[in-house]
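Subject: sequence -> structure tokens, single chain

Hey, anyone have a minute? Need the predicted structure for the following. Not urgent.
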Amino acid sequence: MRKPFIAGNWKMFKNKGDAKRFAEEFSKLYQNKAVDTAICAPFVHLEYLKEAFKGTGIKVGAQNVHHMPEGAYTGEISVGMLKSCNVDYCIIGHSERRQYFGETNEDVRQKIRQLVDNGIKPIMCVGENLEEREKDMQFQVVGRQMSESLVGFTISDLKDLTIAYEPIWAIGTGKTATAEQANEMCALIRGILDGMLGEYIAENTRIQYGGSVKPGNIKELMAQPEIDGALVGGASLIPEDFNNIIEFDK
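Reply:
Had a minute. Here:
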């Protein structure tokens, strides 16, 4: 039985005071230990959040990492820097990274290698854009993202992998894939994992849905057999809304 996993992605929001207020309010609300929970925050907040959430069970993740362990890469963050902040997770391959910064499947593969070699759990994002969906290419697109990003890894490497299916046309748009559409894609992803790495990884990898997830639609999404959680954007910025999503089973 896969334990549900809901992660918030703050993207490029919240200054220091905002992060402090969120941590104080959310720590008081958070009760549902039956759901694994993480906040993936901007780099400047990671160390503070680790300390603020100590003893609560709330995990902390980064939103990106560089594919090289160190070097002359001004403005980038290495896996060693993340490790020194004791982060638990790191988002890789988010559609915004792919769209605005040209991140490729090969970049994703290299970044996952950095993370798994250093004990940080990857949350790998995959998903198609609206044009690809309208041309009925979504399975081909996601299949390629999966196969090219995960080539060369072993079962041991990927035992803590999470995959987030995020249809790009639903991110920040207010549109949401139907629960059936989301479940269909998550089933495809699980099948690809089975073909690449076998039944153990396929059955134990948690697959999240992301794309305009809200308190009002989380229950329907989580009722689907292949959806194990959510990667939440805007609703994760508000403590009460994020907690209501985590409390989907109540």
